[in-house]
Amino acid sequence: MSAEWWREAIVYQVYPRSFADADGDGQGDLRGLISRLDHLSGLGVDAVWLSPFYPSPLADGGYDVADYRDVDPRYGTLADFDRLVAEAGARGIRVIVDIVPNHCSVEHPWFREALRGVGRDRFIFRDRPNGWQSKFGGPAWTQVEDGQWYLHLFDASQPDWNWRHPEVVAMFEDVLRFWLDRGVTGFRIDVANMLFKQDGLPEVELPPGTPLIPADAAVPYENQPELLELYRSWRAILDGYPGARMSVAEIWYGNAEVARPYLTGDGLAQLFNFRLMPAPWSAARFREVIEESHRLAVETGGSIPWVLGNHDVPRMVTRYGIDQDLVRDPTAEVLLGQVEVDVVLGTRRARAAALLLLALPGSAYIYQGDELGLPEHLTIPAGERQDPMFERTARTFIGRDGCRVPLPWSGQATPYGFADVPVRPWLPQPEEWGRLSVAAQQAADGSTLELYRRAIAERRRHPALGDGDLTWLEHGPEVLAFRREPGFTLVVNFGAEPVPFTGTVLLASGPLDGGLLPCDTAVWLA
Ligand code: GLC
Q: Given the CA of residue 312, which atom of ligand 1 is nearest to it?
């Protein structure tokens, strides 16, 4: 791998609360993750990215950080974290941690001080709120006892930092160094396009009839020019450490031009490419997104890793198993449980999508459980839902709990080996998850886990895969096909009819029909 190892890395996202529970309290923890590292080395991933495990009231699943330099006791200790880095490192797996710089938790000591009237200018307090809306729905301002209001672009429990305050800037530099000193390889930057707010906090026109502001609206709290300077300064910190440290930014965009300024190479190492997630299962749409994104990567020299799932969007199996006209917005209310889901169809497509993902040029991120083909859990009772989005949108949006359900490791009943003791996990697991557990899929011919394993192993072995270029092949409107040199071809059949293919099969996402590629199936050819 090159010095810029991330350019072709496969990174596995762990949502710590839902990965594995070693202490049997129903919530995942770092010791649980350590005990399951062989699952990750078996998959063959280069790095693991951990969603937040910092002390937090968990009002937004830990994206409400009360202390940026510690581990929440529910997840373990700093000593556990150090062991994780060491044990992952011994398996050749790097550790990326989440940094949440736009906001903290109302429990953060500086916000508590601010409530007492000390250091309010580290946050955004005003005598009167403007009309800005929270990304989770409802007003972006909450009033405190003495009558002032503070800004929170997410939940009221997540006050936004004032990035024009030098102590805030310095504090985050210190946080970066704290984790870099402990051996992390880099950071996933949460809502990396926010942070700076335009002076004067100008009003935003909300499009009529939309409860939430769409991506790419030019709003005065996104994509402000100061961010580029900030990420250059963070890059300088990262580069001061040995071993090719990096950052990957979470920025949602629909228009590639929004991403371009971030991809110059002297700031962020990577910018997530989320554009396939809201794409309906259509060869034309997938090709359009891939062409545009690949062109952007080539033109800028940037790394835009492909993503098909994360802790914020409905799982692939479910997305591809519903009426594809509904898959416009990954957080749309279509998943309220009112729509028909064909899990068999969704699984077939999700497996084909996995082979596409791993054949694309560049880096890819895999969300925990996607390698098991888990569907979204749609029937979590309203009273057990935890995502603040659910209540903040008056239950219009089902929220993101359904993709955050604790993983099934073994056995036929909850907690499916998530914990060794018969505990109730923090979110309920569906009844039929035994057949999807790691143990059930391990070494099982045709399982989704084996498909991921083989594909990642083949990707490592094959000189055409990883970073590089692609050449489109024309195969009709319902087929997506490209070549990668030397000697690799991918064909995905999105259509309803089988299509012919030629070549030696390296791997297929489902059974083949002689020389025919069935619908919703992908094949890797030599
Ligand atoms: C990011 C996270 C999401 C969180 C939000 C606020 O989008 O991925 O889970 O709710 O930021 O921190």
A: 9
- Tokens describing residue 308: 């098909």
Sign, CA torsion 360/284/347/18 = positive
Is the C-beta atom of 401 inside 6 A of ligand 1?
A: no
Give the pTM. 0.97
Tokens representing 46 are: 């280069």
Q: Which residues contact 287 (CB under 8 A, 6 or more apart)?
A: 472, 480
Beta bridge partners of 133: 139
- Cα of 208 vs centre of ligand 1, distance in Å, is 25
Phi-psi region of 314 (alpha: psi -120 to 50; beta: other; left: phi over 0): beta
Q: How many CB atoms lie within 10 A of CB 35?
A: 17
38-91 pLDDT, tens digit per residue, is 999 999 999 999 999 999 999 999 999 999 999 999 999 999 999 999 999 999
Q: Is 387 in the pocket of ligand 1 (CB under 6 A)?
A: no
340-375 per-position pLDDT tens digit = 899 999 999 999 999 999 999 999 999 999 999 999
The amino acid present at 477, given as its one-letter code, is P
Q: How far, in Å, CA of 157 to CA of 134, rounded?
A: 12
Q: Quick check: CB of 190 below 6 Å from ligand 1?
A: yes
